[in-house]
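Bit of a strange request maybe. I'm writing a small parser for structure token strings and I need a real example to test against, not something I typed by hand. Could someone generate the tokens for this chain?
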Amino acid sequence: MSEGRQRELVVLLAEVAAGDRAAFSRLYERTAAKLFSSIRRILASEALAEDAVQDAYVRIWRRAGDFDASIASPIAWMTTIARHTAIDIVRRGAERISAAGDEIDAELADRLADPRGSGERAVAGSRLKACLDQLDQDRRGMVVLAYCQGWSREELAKRFGRPVATVKTILRRSLIALKDCLGG
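Reply from user aminoacidic:
Good idea to test on real output. This should exercise your parser:
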């Protein structure tokens, strides 16, 4: 970014700190694409990224008076705020998934302990449930959604905010752990 452009952003941030809405609009026009691309690298969903950009600019509006040009460039300061906003969204998603863990566990128990099934199946189901309980909550959730509900790796990647290759690895390692727990 050119030195003149950086000076312009410093001035705009000072005006925003003073409550100037027109300066805020100009600041947005000049920086939104950069912040969106930074956020988009963190968030898989374009809609979530758009929400994160909006949240980031609300934070920038509120904290413009905190900006110090001797510490960081305007775009670095704003990008940091945008990245933190995106990370907060990822964390909130993880909290929602954790909160849904009890529902997943209850559904798993229902699927595994079929009261109309044989006694052998109930025993096998309770052994599997005990082994699944040894997995951390995200891994257990991925296994249940993939193998009980037929979710694809792509769907799991979106839900858990992880790359598809990572989901594939987690599923493979989880199945190996389950197999070991069940005695091969």
